[in-house]
């Protein structure tokens, strides 16, 4: 039976989407970005000093952490859990919360950059490990120090362009 005009019909994209993730304390992703920035700087240093195997291993671990954040959500990332359990109780309440989608998308961008370095490192292009770490470091540093999340900005740009989001798809009326 068709739904009445007064009842909003859920869009197909909303049904397939993951369940809503709780909003985040914005200090959590910044905390995680600070840890990530330090570790990426270590990868760059190791890469520049000739410890390419150690740099590769650490970048691979960071890629796995980015994957965790991208697929489980920024709030379920190990750094996010560490922030919630150890750091946040020692701070005052946040002035505002932020949606989890942009930081989670940013984790996916970090995953893409670090996996590119890992794959190129596996292919024998060992300088790519340090380059990928340096690119990811810039983004993590901007987030940690200036509260400017490049991945979040990319997410918002893609939402405004209609590429991402939960709006109806062209085939929704079919």
UniProtKB/TrEMBL annotation:
Biased composition (Pro residues): 1-11
Transmembrane segments: 31-48, 54-74, 105-125, 131-158
Signal peptide as annotated in the record: none
Record bears the keyword Mitochondrion: no
Presence of the UniProt keyword Transferase in the record: no
Domain DUF4395 span(s) in chain numbering: 25-160
Alphabetized InterPro entries for the sequence: DUF4395
Keywords annotated in UniProt: Membrane, Transmembrane, Transmembrane helix
Span list, region Disordered: 1-26
Pfam families for this protein: DUF4395
Basic and acidic residues bias locations: 17-26
Name this polypeptide is given: DUF4395 domain-containing protein
């Amino acid at each position: 039976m068709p739904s009445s005009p007064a009842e909003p019909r859920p869009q197909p994209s909303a049904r397939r989407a993951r369940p809503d993730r709780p909003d985040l304390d914005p200090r959590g992703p910044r905390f995680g970005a600070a840890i990530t920035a330090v570790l990426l700087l270590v990868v760059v240093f190791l890469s520049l000093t000739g410890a390419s195997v150690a740099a590769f291993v650490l970048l691979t671990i960071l890629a796995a952490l980015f994957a965790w954040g991208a697929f489980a959500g920024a709030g379920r990332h190990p750094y996010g859990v560490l922030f919630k359990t150890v750091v946040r109780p020692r701070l005052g309440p946040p002035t505002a919360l932020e949606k989890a989608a942009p930081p989670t998308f940013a984790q996916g961008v970090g995953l893409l950059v670090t996996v590119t370095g890992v794959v190129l490192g596996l292919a024998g292009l060992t300088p790519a490990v340090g380059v990928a770490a340096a690119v990811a470091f810039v983004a993590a540093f901007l987030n940690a120090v200036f509260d400017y999340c490049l991945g979040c900005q990319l997410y918002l740009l893609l939402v405004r362009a209609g590429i991402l989001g939960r709006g109806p798809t062209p085939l929704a009326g079919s």
